[in-house]
Write a structure and sequence with these properties.
Elements: H1 3-66, H2 77-90, E1 94-100, E2 106-109, H3 123-128, E3 136-141, E4 148-157, E5 163-172, H4 173-183, E6 189-194, E7 199-201, H5 220-226, E8 233-237, E9 243-248, H6 252-257, E10 259-266, H7 267-300, H8 304-319, H9 334-358, H10 360-365, H11 369-401, H12 406-433, E11 441-443, H13 445-451, H14 453-460, E12 464-470, E13 477-479, H15 481-497, E14 503-514, E15 528-537, H16 544-549, H17 567-577, E16 581-586, E17 592-599, E18 623-627, H18 631-643, E19 647-651, H19 654-662, E20 669-673, H20 682-692, E21 697-702, E22 720-722, H21 727-739
Parallel strand pairs: 12-14, 18-19, 18-20, 20-21, 21-22
Antiparallel strand pairs: 1-2, 1-5, 3-4, 4-5, 6-7, 6-10, 8-9, 9-10, 11-13, 14-15, 15-17, 16-17
GO molecular function: phosphorelay sensor kinase activity
Protein name: histidine kinase
EC number: 2.7.13.3
Length: 743
């Protein structure tokens, strides 16, 4: 017996139990469908009753309007009938609209019959004479038309309360039933009877024997319908032996009007529909099982050698830099299929990152530029930095192991250099996206700018005059000093390039209070107190179109190779992330001014987190709990930690890590990613972990973080290792975290 045949026999045996369970489930579904169909009968009857009640209320509104019409307040019978005829043409649901004098005689009607009728014997007329402001309703056969109608009467009274006349609208029950019969797709029978059991509207089906005008009084069906709090539906067998299931509307308003609404369905038809659905489900199950068996049969014919050949071809194309390479589906199961999917996913991710970066300018021009780019780069940074972490770390391993082979050692170094350049690009994008890690602290901005004076003058050159102006008693503000230096240097470099023939540059630092009329570059008001840093040049200036796009990533007016277009984007992102804003003014030939505003703080912020002791890189021996959701990053970091001498317990999510901490065992440090799937991020994991083990040290790592990461006790910013990182950075941060005093 071949391996393929054995596999199929095993699969068939394994599928028998699930197939039986699914079949039983289908049978249960059939019973549920029958129960639902029975409940739907009463629901359909209630729905029809609710619709009819709305029609009664609408008729009451019509009566209320007609009662105030001057054309009805007349004794000209012909004119009154003509007016009602015009009204009736607008409301075809009524067989007629008429007025009745207080003595019960017909005065005028929309049919213009000129007949004389005495309506004193009608129940609705007796009832309505004692009402005021409301309608009375009664189902009857119209004397003028002979049709089954719902008479809806309304008393029209004088200012003294005396009855002037009665407005009567005859609502056509036949048309109403026909509408709902079409809505129910003729799957159900509709029956209207009055309080005496007289049939007003009979079902259209051929199985119903009692005609319109006949009576079902004394029948089981009528006793079921007349019961005030009876069951919702009942089986009734007619004289012909046909079993019908009826549901009745238990509407108080319909019962008060003397109208009973029932919806029925043949029991054979109801069960047949459920049986048909059962047969369809079983057929689908059989087809699915056959397709599954056929698929397994075909899958077993694919040789392992062919799959390995596909993997080798994919690897060669990736080695040549072809990121469009894919292993076409179908993929085999097991480890080979998983590896194929992993390679495809890696190549697709790298290709998407490259395409996204190459196509950023086009995407930005088609969206709301700043915010769209900010959302994109946050996601890019997380995945891209994870990939760069693995690439950079593994390139270090390759460089160490290939030290004896100069050519391969050089290639490993090129990979590391490319990864670091990718990291620099990611940091630039994060600066614009306002998701770069900042270390703000209270500084004197004027003092910081003065400390850069020599650097700025050397950057500008002797052909540009540089002047500084500062306010005294500047307000306190909290800014990242390093990012402030980078932002100011970017502004000065742009100013220098705008003054190739020389000019004048002014750097000012002032207190500034903005109002509702002061707008940022996005046209939004940001009122408040700020410390302003302004850079003004006398260069060539920019047109309004260029100014509107100046802060877009990768937008530049410089020649190719003389600018990335990220300088002003980084400045914009830094100011926004610092809680401030940017303003810009420029005109062709009249220079430019860029103003950065940093918010005034009422009290000094907390102490900045001290930097990692980068010189402490000795190997460790402690036990580290590693939490990282990315499989490749987790495998790389686990290997690095073991190489550094640490014992490692690796998990992929917060709940798994907490389960480890609840078990006995010595763990000195929690090393966790900040952003993880599953609802538990790194800061929440650290808070719960230190609750379980108060002496546990914590070190975070992240490709980006939208908000500053706090320590587990909420005092100050936490220590965080930014991805991608080298082995020496990892070692230094680990020793620094482990050397911290216990809380």
């Amino acid at each position: 017996m071949s391996l393929r045949t054995r596999l199929l026999i095993l699969v068939i045996a394994a599928m028998l139990v699930p197939a039986i369970l699914v079949g039983l489930r289908f049978v249960q579904n059939r019973a549920s469908e029958i129960d639902a169909a029975l409940a739907n009968l009463a629901a359909s009857a209630d729905d029809i009753a609710s619709d009819l009640n709305e029609k009664i209320q609408g008729t009451a509104q019509l009566h209320y309007g007609l009662a105030r019409a001057r054309d009805l307040d007349t004794r000209d019978k012909a004119a009154c009938s003509a007016f009602l005829s015009e009204v009736r043409e607008e409301y075809p649901q009524f067989t007629g609209i008429l007025t009745i004098d207080p003595d019960g005689s017909l005065f005028c009607d929309s049919l213009r019959t000129n007949r004389t009728l005495d309506l004193n014997d009608r129940g609705y007329f007796k009832e309505v004479k004692g009402l005021q402001g409301v309608v009375a309703a009664e189902p009857v056969f119209g004397r003028l038309t002979g049709l089954s109608v719902l008479q809806i009467a309304y008393p029209v009274r004088s200012e003294t309360g005396a009855l002037k006349f009665v407005l009567l609208a005859s609502f056509n029950l036949n048309k109403f039933a026909e509408f709902h019969d079409k809505r129910l797709l003729a799957e159900k029978d509709i029956l209207f009877v009055d309080a005496k059991g007289t049939v007003l509207v009979a079902p259209k089906g051929g199985g119903w024997s009692e005609p319109v005008g006949g009576t079902i009084a004394g029948s089981d069906l009528f006793r079921f319908a007349a019961a005030p709090d009876g069951e919702p539906f009942r089986e009734v067998t007619d004289r012909g032996g046909r079993t019908q299931i009826w549901g009745v509307a238990r509407s108080p308003s319909m019962r008060k009007a003397g109208l009973t609404i029932m919806v029925g369905r043949s029991k054979d038809g109801l069960v047949a529909a459920a049986n048909r659905r059962l047969y369809e489900d079983m057929a689908i199950l059989a087809v699915a099982l056959l397709l599954l068996l056929a698929g397994l049969w075909i899958l077993t014919t694919v040789s392992i050698g062919r799959q390995i050949g596909r993997l080798a071809t994919m690897a060669k194309r990736l080695a040549r830099g072809d990121l469009s390479a894919r292993i076409p589906e179908p993929h085999p199961g097991g480890e080979l299929g998983g590896l194929m999917s992993l390679l495809n996913g890696t190549a697709e991710s790298l290709e998407q990152q490259r395409a996204a970066i190459a196509d950023l300018n086009q995407k930005l021009s088609q969206s709301q530029k700043m915010e769209a780019m900010g959302q994109l780069t946050g996601g890019v940074a997380h995945d891209f930095n994870n990939l760069l972490t693995v690439i950079l770390g593994n390139s270090e391993h390759l460089a160490d192991r290939l030290a004896g082979n100069k050519e391969l050692h050089r290639i490993a170094g090129d990979i590391a250099t490319a990864a670091e350049r990718g990291s620099d690009l990611t940091r630039s994008l994060l600066a614009f996206a306002r998701k770069q890690p900042l270390r703000p602290r209270e500084i004197d901005i004027a003092e910081k700018v003065l400390g850069m004076e020599q650097l700025l003058r050397r950057t500008l050159g002797e052909h540009i005059e540089c002047r500084f102006a500062f306010d005294r008693d500047l307000w306190p503000t909290s800014v990242d000093p390093g990012q402030l230096t980078t932002a100011l240097l970017n502004l000065v470099l742009n100013a220098r390039d705008a003054m190739p023939e020389g000019g004048k540059l002014t750097v000012e630092v002032h207190n500034s209070s903005l109002g509702e009329s002061d707008l940022d570059v996005n046209g939004e008001p940001r009122p408040g107190d700020y410390v302003m840093v302004a850079v003004t040049d006398t260069g060539s200036g920019m047109s309004a179109e260029v100014v509107s796009r100046a802060f877009e990533p990768f937008f530049t007016t410089k020649e190719v190779g003389k600018g990335t277009g990220l300088g002003l984007s980084m400045v914009y992102g830094f100011a926004q992330q610092s809680g401030g804003l940017v303003q810009m003014q420029s005109e062709p030939g009249r220079g430019s001014v860029v103003r950065l505003f940093f918010p005034r703080i009422a009290t000094p912020p907390g102490q900045d987190l001290r930097p990692a002791e980068a010189t402490v890189t000795q190997a460790g021996h402690e036990t580290i709990l590693l939490v990282e959701d990315d499989d490749m990053v987790r495998a790389y970091v686990e290997n690095e930690l073991r190489t550094l001498g640490y014992r490692v317990i690796a998990t992929s999510n917060g709940p798994a890590a907490l389960e480890v901490l609840r078990q006995p065992g010595d763990i000195q440090l929690l090393f966790t990613d900040v952003v993880m799937p599953g609802g538990m991020f790194g800061p929440e994991l650290a808070r719960q972990a230190t609750g379980l083990r108060p002496d546990l040290k914590v070190l975070f790592t992240s490709g980006y973080s939208q908000t500053p990461v706090k320590t587990p006790d909420g005092v100050g910013d936490a220590r965080i290792l930014t991805k991608p990182f080298r082995r020496k950075d990892l070692a230094a941060m680990l020793r620094a975290a482990l050397s911290e005093p216990s809380r």
